[in-house]
Amino acid sequence: NAGVTQTPKFQVLKTGQSMTLQCAQDMNHEYMSWYRQDPGMGLRLIHYSVGAGITDQGEVPNGYNVSRSTTEDFPLRLLSAAPSQTSVYFCASSGLAGGGNGELFFGEGSRLTVL
Amino acid sequence: SQKIEQNSEALNIQEGKTATLTCNYTNYSPAYLQWYRQDPGRGPVFLLLIRENEKEKRKERLKVTFDTTLKQSLFHITASQPADSATYLCALDEGNNDMRFGAGTRLTVKP
To answer: Residue B18 has what DSSP assignment?
Structure first.
């Protein structure tokens, strides 16, 4: 059972480039979310989804785009990367529709550097 | 403004002692509060969930308390071991699917 799989693990971008961080889960979870983690700031919620076709913004959504066309996949798109988006990104899923009422399963993270 | 504060960036204790980590929050009314463990270079791993109407939860050597009057959760690891060394994160959700995390406390258990 793979759990939550994130790709790529590492990526270096130039300012202005676009890219997509992939997230897939094989647990049939309805709830999926993206966080970024910066030193001293903890995990900050970017976007989340409570099911296919439904997405919503978290605490820091600007500069990021998401879609949820299937239950399994929740890609995060950076349309025009900026140095401020240098961070470690985590995807998480939960078996309950509400994120807080069930444990979150996290991926191993994607480390992004924007030059 | 809303804040989640974990007592200190780092906590050092001796093996066998009880580690107590604190999570204080301001301007939140959490329906759920969770604790996670994170090892360097890895994703967080769920440890315990406590709901607003619960005072205490236990799991093996772990205990969590939740005081909605003090707006505080305490996380205890009894009989600590060097393998418990990690960063511990608290997270809370007001029931609106928007889970917020504290910055974490790095625990080091020395043999």
So the answer is: P
